[in-house]
UniProtKB/TrEMBL annotation:
This is Ribonuclease R. The keyword RNA-binding applies. GO terms for molecular function: exoribonuclease II activity; RNA binding. It comes from Sphingobium yanoikuyae. 3'-5' exoribonuclease that releases 5'-nucleoside monophosphates and is involved in maturation of structured RNAs. Its EC number is 3.1.13.1.
Length: 771
C-alpha cells in the first residue's frame, strides 16, 4: 500500500523518482518545466509529498525564486520558468505572419524581456480565429520559438474599450462607448492624463458586475476631423501605420526600371481612366476600337489595362507580408487606409495621365453579340491620355461638355459597351439597383452634404469592362491549370429563401421554392413590383436573402453575376486577391521580367511556394478583412450622418422603415441613411401585435400598422455622432415624455421581457425562433 501511495505521489513528476525530503531549486524547476499541466504550489507539494511546515517552506522558496527572476507566475497561480510560457495559458492573437497567426501571453510580467511571439497551430476549420481574439491554449517549445495549440476560444471580456470621457453632475467620470450596441457606460477608475470630452482607449479592470475602466491611450477630440475614421480603425483593429521596413522597401521597389523593351508598348493608344471624382488612386484604364478583322464584322477590340502591382510587390517581401495582413484598402469619407504605402498606391502604381506606367493588359476580342471571342494577357507600358470623373465622361457622351477625347476614346468605348451590355442582358445577372451614400467634406473635414450617389451609364460601362476582364483572368488561369483565387458567390440557402417567401406573401406576391433559383428569378420579382412604393424595400429583402461573397481557390461560381468562373483581377492596388491573380498569370503565361539588381527585392513576381500552399488559408483571411473593412466603412458613414443630422434634432423628417422588431421599428432618413429606432413604448397606450412574417407592428384598437419599407414622417429626437445612433418619435407622439403611461412602461421589471403592449401574431413565432 505504501509503495502504491509513493507511486501516486510521483506520477505528476512524469514518473521520475524524487528524493525524499525537501526539493532543491533545480528539482522544483525541472518539475515545473516538464509538467504537462499547470504547476501551482499544490501540485508541486503533492509531487514531492510535502506536508505541514514543508508546504510553508515551499511557499517561501517559490517566492524567493520568483524574486530572483527564476520563476514567473501565470493564470490560476501556476508557476513557470521565467522567460518561458506556461503549459496552458491565455493568449491574445496580435498579428499574422504570412498565413500563421501570432499570439502573445495575455499576462507577461518578466521584466526586461519582451513577450514571446507564439505561432498558433490551427486545427479543424481555419479562419475561425483572427487578430484580437483570446484563446486558452496548450503551449510547447519548438526549436527557438513557441507553438500554441488552441483549446478554447474565450470571450472578449478584456478587450479594450473605446469611448468618450464624460463627467457627471456629481463629478464622477464615466466612459461613454462609441459602439451603439453597447448600451451601458463604464465608470472610470484611472483617468491618467485624459480630460473630459477626450476620445480614449481604456482597459477594463475588476470583475463583473464591478467593472471599471483604466484609460491607456488618448486619441483626442472625438469631433475633430478624421476622428470618426480613427474610431473605426481602433475599434476594428485595422492596421493603419506602415512599419519603417515596409516604407523603405516601397521606395526601393518604386525605383525598379520598367523594362520597356520587354513589355508590350501601348503608349500610342488613347487609353483613359474613368473613376469617381474623389478617387485617391487609379488602378484601371480602358480602350476600345472597331475590330478590323473581316471575320469579326461589327465586333470590337478592347484593352483593360491594370496597374502592374505584382512587379513591385513580390512574394516573400516585407511589402507582401504587410499587404496580406491588411487584405484590402479601407475607404473612409476623410481618409484612406491603403493596402500599400503611398509611394506605390498613389504614385508609382497609380495610372496617372501623361506618365509612363507598368501595366498588366487584358486584350479582349468581342463579337457583334457582345460575346468575348478571345483574350490574352501581356505586361505592357501605357500612358493614360486622361483621368476622367464618371460625371465628366458622361457629360461628354451626352453632348453637355466638350472633350477632345470624345471621338478617339469615349465614343468607341461606349459603342463597344453596347455589345457587352447585350451579353449582360442575355446573361441576366442579379439587378439590385440600391442607393449608395456619399459623404462630402470640405477642406477642414467638416460635412458639406450627405447624398445618394447618382448611377450613370459611365458607372455601368466601367463595371462591364471590369467584369469581362475578371472572367478572362479566371478562364486564362483555368486553361493553364494554374491556381485561381476565385471570387465566389453561392446560391442563397433554403432558410433565407423561406423567409423571403413569407415576406413576399405579405404583398400577395407568390414565390415558389421548388423552382431552380437563378438571378433571373429575382429579377422577375422586381419587374412584377414595377415602380411601386414597395420596390426598394423588396429589393432590400432580396439582397438580405443572398449569401456573403468570399475568396477561395475552389470554384463555386458567382451566382449574382450569373457566371461560372470569376476572379478579381482589376484592383491589385487595393485588394490582395487581385495581386495573387496577377502573380498566377505571370507564372502561367511566362511573363516574368529580369530580376531586380537590388538584392533586397525578391527575384520573382510570379506566385511563390507559400502562395501555392496557402491559397485556402489566405482566401479565408482576406475574406475576413473585407468584412471588417465593410463594417468599419458603414459605421463611419453612420457617424457622419448622425453628425450632419445633429443640427436638425427636433425637426420632422421624411423617413422609411428599414426593420421591425418586437421592441419597436428602425427607420432611415430618406436620401441620407443612418438607422434610428422608434421605441414601441412611444407608439401609444394600445397593444401592438408583432407580425414576424410580415415584419410589422400592428395596433389592436387602431389598426395602425408599421411595416418594413413604409414611408412616413418622424421627428428626430436624438442624433449621437459618437456612436452613430439616431432616435425618432412620431410627430404627434401619443405618449409624450413624462406621461404616467411612459413612466410605468420604463420600470425595470416591465422591460425584462418584450414591451407590455406587444403580442406575437400567427404561428410563425416558433418557426422563426428555430431558424
Amino acid at each position: 500500500m505504501a509503495s502504491t501511495q509513493k507511486q501516486k505521489k510521483a506520477a505528476p513528476a512524469r514518473a521520475k523518482v524524487r528524493p525524499a525530503g525537501f526539493p532543491t531549486r533545480q528539482q522544483v524547476m525541472d518539475f515545473i518545466t516538464e509538467s504537462d499541466t499547470p504547476a501551482g504550489k499544490r501540485e508541486i507539494a503533492k509531487a514531492f509529498g510535502l506536508k505541514g511546515q514543508e508546504k510553508i517552506a515551499l511557499k517561501a522558496l517559490l517566492k524567493d525564486m520568483a524574486d530572483e527572476g527564476l520563476l514567473d507566475i501565470g493564470p490560476a497561480r501556476a508557476f513557470h520558468k521565467m522567460g518561458g510560457v506556461p503549459k496552458v495559458t491565455v493568449l491574445r492573437i496580435v498579428d499574422v505572419d504570412d498565413t500563421t497567426l501570432i499570439a502573445t501571453p495575455e499576462r507577461w510580467e518578466a521584466e526586461g524581456q519582451p513577450a514571446p511571439r507564439i505561432r498558433v497551430v490551427e486545427r479543424g476549420k481555419r479562419g475561425a480565429l483572427t487578430i484580437g481574439d483570446r484563446i486558452l491554449a496548450r503551449t510547447e517549445e519548438a526549436g527557438k520559438g513557441w507553438l500554441a495549440h488552441p483549446m478554447k476560444k474565450l470571450a472578449k471580456a478584456t478587450e479594450m474599450l473605446l469611448g468618450v470621457v464624460e463627467e457627471m453632475a456629481d463629478g464622477k467620470l464615466w466612459l461613454r462607448p462609441v459602439d451603439k450596441r453597447i448600451r451601458k457606460d463604464t465608470p472610470i477608475s484611472d483617468i491618467g492624463t485624459a480630460k473630459k470630452g477626450d476620445l480614449v482607449l481604456a482597459e477594463p479592470t475588476g470583475r463583473p458586475p464591478r467593472i471599471s475602466a483604466r484609460v491607456t491611450d488618448i486619441l483626442g477630440d472625438p469631433f475633430a476631423p478624421r476622428s470618426f475614421s480613427l474610431i473605426a480603425i481602433h475599434k476594428h483593429g485595422i492596421p493603419h501605420v506602415f512599419p519603417e521596413a515596409v516604407e523603405e522597401e516601397a521606395v526601393a521597389a518604386s525605383k525598379l526600371p520598367l523594362h520597356e523593351d520587354k513589355r508590350e508598348d501601348l503608349r500610342h493608344l488613347p487609353i483613359v481612366a474613368i473613376d469617381p471624382v474623389d478617387a485617391r488612386d487609379h488602378d484601371d484604364a480602358v480602350w476600345a476600337a472597331p475590330d478590323e478583322d473581316p471575320a469579326n464584322e461589327g465586333g470590337f477590340k478592347a484593352i483593360v489595362a491594370i496597374a502592374d502591382v505584382s512587379y513591385y510587390v513580390r512574394p516573400g517581401s516585407a511589402l507582401d507580408r504587410e499587404a496580406r495582413k491588411r487584405g484590402n484598402s479601407v475607404y473612409f469619407p476623410d481618409l484612406v487606409v491603403p493596402m500599400l504605402p503611398h509611394q506605390l498606391s498613389s504614385d508609382m502604381c497609380s495610372l496617372r495621365a501623361g506618365q509612363d506606367r507598368a501595366a498588366m493588359a487584358c486584350h479582349l476580342v468581342i463579337d457583334a453579340q457582345g460575346k468575348v471571342k478571345s483574350f490574352r494577357f501581356s505586361r505592357a507600358t501605357i500612358r493614360v491620355a486622361a483621368v476622367l470623373a464618371y460625371e465628366n465622361a458622361q457629360a461628354a457622351i451626352d453632348g453637355e461638355q466638350d472633350n477632345e477625347l470624345l471621338e478617339p476614346a469615349l465614343k468607341p468605348l461606349w459603342a463597344c459597351w453596347a455589345l457587352l451590355r447585350k451579353a449582360r442582358e442575355k446573361r441576366d445577372p442579379l439587378a439590385l439597383d440600391l442607393p449608395e451614400r456619399r459623404v462630402v467634406l470640405d477642406e477642414w473635414g467638416k460635412i458639406v452634404s450627405v447624398a445618394v450617389r447618382e448611377r450613370l451609364d459611365a458607372h455601368m460601362l466601367i463595371e462591364d469592362y471590369m467584369i469581362a476582364a475578371n472572367v478572362a483572368a479566371a478562364k486564362a488561369l483555368e486553361a493553364k491549370k494554374a491556381p485561381v483565387m476565385y471570387r465566389v458567390h453561392e446560391t442563397p440557402g433554403r432558410d433565407k429563401l423561406v423567409a423571403l417567401k413569407e415576406y413576399l406573401a405579405t404583398f400577395d406576391i407568390d414565390f415558389a421554392l421548388g423552382q431552380v433559383i437563378r438571378p433571373s428569378t429575382f429579377n422577375q420579382l422586381i419587374k412584377k413590383v414595377g415602380e411601386s412604393e414597395e420596390k426598394e424595400q423588396i429589393m432590400t429583402q432580396i439582397l438580405r436573402s443572398q449569401t456573403q461573397a468570399y475568396y477561395a481557390p475552389q470554384n463555386m461560381g458567382h451566382f449574382g453575376l450569373a457566371l461560372g468562373s470569376y476572379a478579381h483581377f482589376t484592383s491589385p492596388i487595393r485588394r490582395y486577391a487581385d495581386l495573387l491573380v496577377h502573380r498566377a498569370l505571370v507564372g502561367a503565361y511566362d511573363l516574368e521580367l529580369p530580376a531586380p539588381k537590388d538584392r533586397a527585392i525578391p527575384d520573382r513576381s510570379s506566385l511563390g511556394q507559400e502562395d501555392y500552399e496557402n491559397m485556402g488559408r489566405v482566401g479565408e483571411m482576406i475574406s475576413g478583412h473585407e468584412r471588417r473593412a465593410m463594417e468599419a466603412e458603414r459605421e463611419t458613414i453612420d457617424r457622419y450622418v448622425a453628425a450632419f443630422l445633429s443640427a436638425h434634432v427636433g425637426e420632422v423628417v421624411k423617413a422609411r422603415i428599414t426593420g421591425v422588431q418586437n421592441f419597436g421599428f428602425f427607420a432611415t432618413v430618406e436620401g441620407l441613411g443612418g438607422d434610428g429606432l422608434v421605441p414601441v413604448s412611444t407608439l401609444g397606450a394600445e397593444h401592438f401585435f408583432f407580425d414576424e412574417a410580415g415584419k410589422a407592428l400592428q395596433g389592436v384598437e387602431s389598426g395602425d400598422r408599421y411595416t418594413v419599407g413604409q414611408r412616413l414622417e418622424l421627428r428626430l429626437a436624438e442624433a449621437d455622432p459618437i456612436n452613430g445612433a439616431l432616435r425618432f418619435e412620431l410627430p404627434d407622439n401619443p405618449a409624450p415624455r413624462g406621461s404616467p403611461l411612459k413612466r410605468d412602461r420604463t420600470r425595470p421589471k416591465i422591460h425584462r421581457g418584450r414591451p407590455t403592449n406587444i403580442r406575437h401574431i400567427g404561428s410563425s413565432r416558433g418557426k422563426h425562433k428555430k431558424r
